[in-house]
Amino acid sequence: MSPVLEVDGLEVAFGDVPVVRGLSYELRAGEVLGIVGESGAGKSVAAAAVLGLLPPEAKVSGSVRLHGRELIGAPERELARIRGRTVSMVFQDPQSALTPVYRVGDQIAEAVRAHQRVTKEQAAVKAVDLLDLVGIPDPARRALAFPHEFSGGMRQRALIAMAIANDPDVIICDEPTTALDVTVQAQVLEVLRKAQCRTGAAIVLITHDLGVVAGFADRVLVMYAGRPVETGDVDDVYYRTRMPYTSGLLGSVPRVDGGGRRPLVPIEGGPPEPGRPAPGCPFAPRCPMREEACDDREPPLFEVGAGHRAACIRWADVRRADGGEQARAPREPVTRGPRTVLEVQGLVKRYPLMRGAMFRRRAGTVHAVAGISFDIREGETLGLVGESGSGKTTALTQILELAEPEEGRIVVLGCDTARLTAGQRAAVRRDMQVVFQDPAASLDPRMTVYDILAEPLRAHRAGAPGRRVAELLALVGLDTAHAARYPRELSGGQCQRVAIARALALEPRLLVLDEPVSALDMSIRAGVLNLLGALKDRLGLSYLFVAHDLAVVRYLADRVAVMQLGRIAEIGRAEAVYATPAHPYTQALLSAIPLPDPVRERSRERILLDGEPPSPADPPSGCRFRTRCPTFRGVLTAEERSLCVDAEPEVRPLGEDQAAACHYAEKLAVV
């Protein structure tokens, strides 16, 4: 088959700064090409260049041929005719990609009428059919809604409906699942598969998630410093890696399968800045296999196998950084310390739902947290996980406030927060520190790293900060020279290390981690996770680790609590919950997490959840998960369902340190 899309020697520069260098690939009908790499590798810029969407100041050269027709330098009128019809795009942020003042159905109908001779009524009917195709419930009613009335997953599906409206030959997907929960991600990927089957389109999938590429793509192209460094069949690239950078990416990914808590293999350093290429191989400063010849010239893409090419002069010596192991050593059991550092009992938090602009009135109640209980012992890590809107952050906020909760009881380091005096509260804050999700937002941009680390020492009168600041920098793997820098002069990973050092300045006993690695690249994330694990063992810390990424939690947590719509669905020892989850919600979450292993990923069965999560302002009666529960819909009899409808299940034990809030809980291996 002749290629549908041919990209040959694509170069993109902004002024004198090259961003994409020598990118070449071919795409045939029905084929999926995954393009992966760290932030700044040039993936999104290359996709925009293919469609002619770059600003006028961008200098684009090379060749992009669609069905043999050259697109570089083509008139805007010709590009407008093919965009949306022959080639379409699904953008990363559906909120900004959809016009907020137009109804969703009208926007899809507009895409139809732009390329087809149909009436307004026919286009509206087709828009409803497309929304139904991508799994939007009640599509006729939803077509009349505005984008802000859709959830993130529904907006992404609406974008996919728009992209396939004219049966394109090529669909370019730029990080289509990055900001989505894993269950919604699984739904969106299933919609993309369905769309590809219907249209027969070739797909370019740009992502940082190696697990998504493993299960969805036929071929993979790895980009670094604006150029391809390895490309080939997905199985060849994953199992027979021939580029140290690709090996590092695979070794830095935490996985939910297997037993052990093996150290991740981070890629040291950071990508080179655009416009400042070092002589020789651009990856050499970070490469563990570097030799003198690497500094002579930039290596070309060597043919290392059938259809497999890699840009490394030592490609024959490269192996996967994690050894490519399919099984891992079992994790050592964690002995829970005798003292409890955090105890939460029956915690409840409600918010009033207000309506009206001039005359505000209460229209309901948001049940953000509906009676959760857990504890953390000395030297233990508890992972608090769940989808967006499950109540994780609200529970975290209630703990950090150190105030009397609306209902329930919070005991931090032996102190009941409802009875704390001002002096006691200050003492507890010293022993309980927090690391936030976005390091750039949590660090004062006007202060140097030295002042940031010295601030808590001065506030609590903990002595002269000079020597302690140097100790903290060394503790988190930073050089003393970083003390004179401002946050803007540091990478994301370095900023997060500074935030961790600040949290450790007062030698706390409990560290609260709020999504501490979600904003970081996969290679940098591995280094921060290794650091957190080493610090816990070295300093005897206890962690409350809040995250939505269950693979990250698997790596760090001793126990895990899964939240769903303000309640705890399942809680227990991490090995037990991950190996044989008992609650249908936990099973769906774990089955939705992609594995960076093509063979295993293609053979897995997904547990897809229908519909959207219920609103915490109007939770279902009885079991809060029953409206999406596959067990409720497909297994239970009418009499058994009545129990789920009428009675809210309590968390009940299912064995040693594992419990689930389900009337019909049954352990099941899903990973």
Instruction: Give the count of structural domains.
Output: 3
The strands making up the biggest β-sheet line up spatially as 6-7-8-3-9-10-12-11
How many distinct beta strands? 24
Q: What count of helical segments does DSSP give?
A: 24
Q: Which CATH architecture of the largest domain is right? A: 3-Layer(aba) Sandwich
Here the CATH topology of the largest domain equals Rossmann fold
CATH superfamily of the largest domain: P-loop containing nucleotide triphosphate hydrolases
- In the CATH hierarchy, what is the class of the largest domain? Alpha Beta
Give the strand content: 15-25%
State the gist of this model.
This protein is of the alpha/beta class. It contains 24 helices and 24 strands.
Describe this structure in words.
The structure is a single chain. The protein has 671 residues and is α/β, with parallel strands linked by helices. The chain folds into 3 domains: 5-217, P-loop containing nucleotide triphosphate hydrolases (Rossmann fold), CATH 3.40.50; 227-317, no CATH class; 340-577, P-loop containing nucleotide triphosphate hydrolases (Rossmann fold), CATH 3.40.50.300. Helices cover 32% and strands 23% of the residues. It contains 24 helices and 24 strands. The chain has an 8-stranded mixed β-sheet, with helices on both faces. It starts with a strand and ends in an 11-residue tail after the last strand. Mean pLDDT is 89; it is low at 324-331.
